Catalase (Bacillus swezeyi), 693 residues
Amino acid sequence: MNKHEGRRKVNEHSKDQQLEHYRSDNRGKKMTTNQGLRVSEDEHSLKAGVRGPTLMEDFHFREKMTHFDHERIPERVVHARGFGAHGYFQVYEPMTEYTKAKFLQDPSVKTPVFVRFSTVAGSRGSGDTVRDVRGFATKFYTEEGNYDLVGNNIPVFFIQDAIKFPDLVHAFKPEPHHEMPQASTAHDTFWDFVANNEETAHMIMWAMSDRAIPRSYRMMEGFGVHTFRFVNEQGKARFVKFHWKPVLGIHSLVWDEAQTIAGKDPDYHRRDLWEAIERGDEVEYELGVQMIDEEDEFKFDFDILDPTKLWPEEMVPVKIIGKMTLNRNQDNVFAETEQAAFHPGNVVPGIDFTNDPLLQGRLFSYTDTQLIRLGGPNFHEIPINRPVCPFHNNQYDGYHRMTINQGPVAYHKNSLQNNDPAPASEEEGGYVHYQEKVEGRKIRQCSESFKDHYSQAKLFWNSMSPVEKEHIISAFRFEVGKVKSKDVRRQVVAMFNRVDGDLAKQIAAGVGVKPPEKDEGSKVTLKSPALSQENTVQTPVTRTVAILAEHGFDDTEVGRVMKAFHKAGIIPEIISTALGIIKGDNGKEMEAVNTLQTVDSVLYDAVYIPGGHESVERLKKQTAALDFIHEAFGHYKAIGASGEGIALLLSAAGSHAGSQPGVITSRNHKDTDSFSKDLIEAIARHRHWNRKV
């Protein structure tokens, strides 16, 4: 075994091995108190007689009830609703030229990771599919310490300076006088903030786009948002932005689906992630970086340190440097996802900060937040946060201290303990901050280069496809249409007239505001194709298909189509009027795993209606079946129908449905292979926007 193979083995399993010490499986065990005393009874408290009062000496009751009373910790102020998964990261090639970070050097090393996905605005009990920014936080357990890449699924942010973050959050949270609405920005205080803080313009364009209602955590991008630095062994620094690119592509729900799913399955995104990993479908993202040499800092028409700006990929290409694979679900959501403590200040040698004022504020705020949530300064000792490498310092005691420190010395410098633990030199791996020259007067202002709030908002608008633009307009009309103050609505229209005049007119037409008389929109004509989801990866892998069937379905055809689905990586499910076994027209049995009463078309990517006279006649009598098909058709999803199933399709979606894009039909029982191939290609497209619905 060479040294790289040895390191690979250690790094791949070290976090799992460390967590094993803390895992507890109650199966086959006898009940005990937290002190290890075996318990003989757990249904009745200790009483003075069978009808007497409970006795204070019942230590088991007191321990059990006290623990229950203290089970909850404060939820996060933002990103409260989250879900996580474990995995590993591997770099594709040594990044020595750009950074000395060790986990970015050896392609054979698997660095353990834990990722927490989240929504921003809602509480822990809110739905997964609300229109919102999604958090995408990754903890790398490297041999040099934990590195946290704490980002979102949108590459820019609402504000430029962290001092305004409390104001932003107060504005988008439920209004304090009546605590409504939950997990929604469709209300007065948010849009009042937007209209009076014009730096939000670019982010609002993203938030009103399809990016804010992703199909799955597995199908959304992640961004570090801020500008960081890579620093190599020679001390040369480059500005860097981080990107996570989902291997399955970037796909979204439509707004009507998102609202329906919030009622049908508010856990839709977490369930999707959990079930994918449980069935062995690894979740993959490639890590990309954009880099700018320090001498090129001022050559762009935007400030590269401004968090409300992105670096267009056509100007600064994304270099793909590695891949992250999520392949293990959590053992316990509270112990892992809820107690995971992320912090953008958790860096390793070779990664450093810039003067982005929003990033600078986050470097304070995240530690401060964890102190109140997790009850003291020792949250790094919670298993999910504990680094895989040893850690040594003179920080002792405090709430929930787990380490049993030995020896009399807890200070630096010292002679009683040979000055241990001693600082490490840069050659020994000690972290040394990049020596950026900083000078200037104390001032509460922003750079003039931060004051263009509309050029990139217009760039984003220019880059959208016609359908994406329609969705943005509809989102504005819904959100601003919920605002009660006509003056705020007027201000919003005026603000986005400075992005694009036609956009403002379209918003105004839907929210009861007089359209602007003059187009004051940005004159930017550039486009960035990378910003449009129309140009993303299209694959059928892990797509879900609802197969509507009853007794008497064409079992020969269904068997062949399902075989093709499985080969393409598609997940088919039989949906019927009742759970259990249904028999095909040749006696073949299949199991219906869901019913028309328990699921809805919005929970699937596509629909397949097989032939079989008896099956179709039964389904025709089910209003739920007709609604299921009609809804999928109206959401532009792929639909396949064969044999007698075509009549059911036309009955549900209209006589014109069979000729519409993404609708695949076949009356030829011998042409199943061609039918399956065409249907799979249609499923890979995700949506068929040129369909007439």
Observations:
- Residues 82-381 form a domain with the Catalase HpII,  Chain A, domain 1 fold (CATH 2.40.180.10).
- The longest helix spans residues 3-20.
- The CA atoms of residues 220 and 403 lie 39 Å apart.
